[in-house]
Amino acid sequence: MRKTGEKIKTSKWDPSEVIETKEDVLAFLEGALEENDPEFLFKTIGYIARSKGMARIARELNLNREGLYAALSAQGNPSFITIARVLDNLGYQLSVKQKVPA
C-alpha cells in the first residue's frame, strides 16, 4: 500500500510498442488523419515506422536513419515525398475523401 505523499513512478507511453498488426497501423493512420494536424500525422507515422523498424525503412529508402527520426518527430517537417515513400514502404498509401459537414 502506498503511503501518503509517496511518489508514484510512471513511465512515458510509447505507442510504437503496441502497434503490431495491419489493423493497428490502419487505426493509427486513420485516427491521425482525422485530427487534421500535420505534426500529429508525422509523429504517428514515426511511431508506426519505429514499430516496424526505422533503421530498416531508412536503409531500404536510402535515407539517413537519424534524419528520418527527426523528420517524423513532432518537430519534424518532412517533405510529402518522404511521407509517401515511408507509407509505401509500410504497404500503405494516402487517399482523399470528402469532408462530412458539421
List keywords for this structure.
52% helix, 102 residues
List the helices and strands and how they pair.
Layout: H1 22-34, H2 38-52, H3 54-60, H4 65-71, H5 80-90
Helix pairs in contact: 1-2, 2-3, 2-5
Question: What can you see in these coordinates?
Answer:
The protein has 102 residues and is an all-alpha fold. Helices cover 52% and strands 0% of the residues. It is built from five helices and no strands. It has helices spanning 22-34, 38-52, 54-60, 65-71, 80-90. The longest helix is centred in the middle third of the chain and has 15 residues, at 38-52. The protein is globular, with a radius of gyration of 17 Å.
Major β-sheet profile: none
Radius of gyration: 17 Å
The portion of residues forming beta strands comes to: under 5%
Model regions low in confidence, pLDDT < 50 over at least 5 residues = none
Assign the structural class, choosing from mainly alpha, mainly beta, alpha/beta, alpha+beta, or little secondary structure.
Answer: mainly alpha
Short description:
It contains five helices and no strands. It is mainly α.
